[in-house]
Write a structure and sequence with these properties.
The protein is an alpha+beta fold and 301 residues long. 19% of the residues lie in helices and 34% in strands. It is globular and about 60 Å long.
């Protein structure tokens, strides 16, 4: 009986030595990447808010070598002062008109592919700037592109129109290390709307100091001109994401229809977060109209 007991004792002793002499290596788990499900849903709400008036959305087709483009920027500033909290602006620095839009050597290139798309596909490549549009609406006797000197008058028309949709946007989180922002966009239809519409999301930056040609009597460009509302990137396609009730149904939105969509956005290291904002649009994008039904601006900080 003693031999089996001795064998068991020796085995246990060896096992203890092995355990004490080895360091356990746990399985590797990477906590640096978190997979986050982004909300994307729609439903009919039980409480429908009252309709609201349209925001004034101004697209400024501009360029760094355009002498009169600062005048258009002043017009946007004046319209914003006259309508506090009711104006959303987008500075579209395309690259098509090289005489007006070619970047200055040694200064930032403010032109983007998405600006080129807006310039060509929405405003049909106008031959001169500054120009642009107000809510991308075709006013009686006008084209979609209207003179910057007319923006104020068309803004007065837009602000008196009711919008069929409300935009509620919010910043969920911002990671300053990864430079990632996560936002929620909630759309609520307060009126029945038949036509198909899209959700467009852009990122803009203001207070960019760079070189700009100036109006007369100035004869030299200004090296420290402040550029505002500069289109940096499109988070959706430039034309927007179709608002689908199901996999195939677009349009025919009933009163109380709600869409909720989350977006996660990477910010370039060269952009100043404190000067960045999101522009949210609910817009048509069909052969008959590109009109913006509602707009919103959400500051990143």
């Amino acid at each position: 009986m003693k031999k089996p007991l001795i064998k068991i004792f020796l085995l246990n002793f060896l096992l203890v030595l092995l355990i004490s002499g080895c360091k356990e290596t746990p399985p590797y788990i990477d906590f640096s990447k978190k997979i986050i499900g982004l909300r994307d849903t729609n439903y009919v709400g039980t409480n429908t808010p009252s309709p609201v008036m349209k925001k004034i959305y101004i697209e400024d087709l501009t360029g760094v070598r355009c002498n009169n483009c600062p005048k258009a920027a002043v017009n946007i500033h004046d319209i914003s002062l006259a309508n506090p909290g009711k104006v959303v602006a987008l500075g579209v620095y395309a690259s098509t008109l090289t005489n007006f839009m070619t970047p200055w050597p040694g200064f930032q290139n403010l032109s983007t592919t998405v600006a080129d798309n807006i310039f060509k596909d929405i405003f049909k490549s106008p031959g001169a700037i500054p120009t642009g549009g107000v809510n991308r609406k075709v006013f009686p006797g006008e084209a979609i592109t209207v003179s910057y000197n007319s923006w104020s008058g068309f803004a007065d028309i837009i602000k008196m129109e009711e919008s069929p949709v409300i935009i509620k946007d919010s910043l969920i989180a911002y990671d300053s290390i990864l430079r990632k922002a996560r936002i929620l966009v909630k759309l609520i239809f307060t009126k029945k709307y038949i036509e198909e519409v899209n959700l467009s999301l852009y990122l803009i930056e203001s207070k960019i100091i760079s070189k700009q040609s100036m109006p007369s009597p100035a004869t030299e460009p200004k090296d420290d001109y402040e550029h505002n509302h500069v289109l940096r990137k499109a988070i959706t396609n430039f034309s927007g994401l179709p608002l689908k009730i199901n996999s195939s149904t677009i349009g025919n939105y009933e009163v109380g229809r709600v869409f909720e969509k989350e977006f996660e956005v990477d910010l370039d290291a060269n952009w100043k977060v404190k000067n960045c904002a999101f522009v949210v649009l609910v817009n048509r994008f069909d052969d008959n109209s590109k009109e913006v039904l509602q707009a919103s601006e959400l500051d990143l900080q």
